[in-house]
Amino acid sequence: MTKKAWPAAALIVGAGSWGVIWYPLRRLAQDGLSGVWLALLMYGGAAAASLILCRGGRCAGVSRRVWLALAVLGGITNIGFVVAVLHDNILRVTLLFYLSPVWSVLAARVFLKERVSLPVVAGIVTALVGVMMLLWRQAAPTLNGFDALALASGAAFAGANVILRAQPDVALAAKLLATFAGVVGVGLVALAVTAHGMPHPPGLAVLAAVVGGGLAIFTITLLVQYGVTALPVRQSSVLLLVEVVTAAFSQHLLLHGALTTRALAGALAVAAGATLVAAYEG
């Protein structure tokens, strides 16, 4: 395999895994682990695994403010996504999250004063039109709470990307640890605020979430980050579409979900617009 083939393969496997991860999440939820509790256990396991990468001071040198910002945004990103895929339409959640390149461009324009090119503007408009088509229910577009969570998840992910663009020296190990630890922190705050009682799932489900889920999240995230870091933005943005494809097919095969013509057109518009933004923004 060539040098570019390894990161491309890693990105395809990682993105495809994100597209089907909803299924084991829902199986664990059936055993009594709610969205926030499930995220807390899985990402706690992933945080423990990520400590392996921090040996030799690889996680040092990041300012407390940057680390905290990455942790909070990482927590919102992943808890929002986990809760949304447990309760909402899988493809809708995936596509609403996939708007993150649009939010990245807008945030970079506001906070980093980066210029926005005409193709990027066209991509933003295309993606937003696609969102309106996806959210269209009966006579008008509507946004339920889980749709909002998916949008917030993508926006938080975009915010973290803008911070990393402004702080390019943050090591991958530090980024992973901040993200995973952030899920634990934000999850504990969410549980305290919402006064969720402690669930009583089978011990095997807890073990599966911490060990199996933690290692899976750690591995998938590492694969995606390796691919995104090693490949040009134009190439990685196209390969990330594998997540959308696997989400659509897995939903159809496992839940027998059908797409309306409007939803299909909206999905294509979001994917095309977000890819155009990511390609020209990089």
From TrEMBL:
Keyword Electron transport (UniProt): no
Pfam families, sorted: EamA
UniProt keywords, alphabetically: Membrane, Transmembrane, Transmembrane helix
One GO cellular component term: membrane
Domain EamA stretches: 9-135
Bilayer-spanning residue ranges: 35-54, 66-87, 93-111, 118-136, 148-164, 176-198, 204-226, 238-255, 261-280
Name by which UniProt lists this protein: EamA domain-containing protein
Taxonomic source organism: Acidiferrobacter thiooxydans
Lineage: Bacteria, Pseudomonadati, Pseudomonadota, Gammaproteobacteria, Acidiferrobacterales
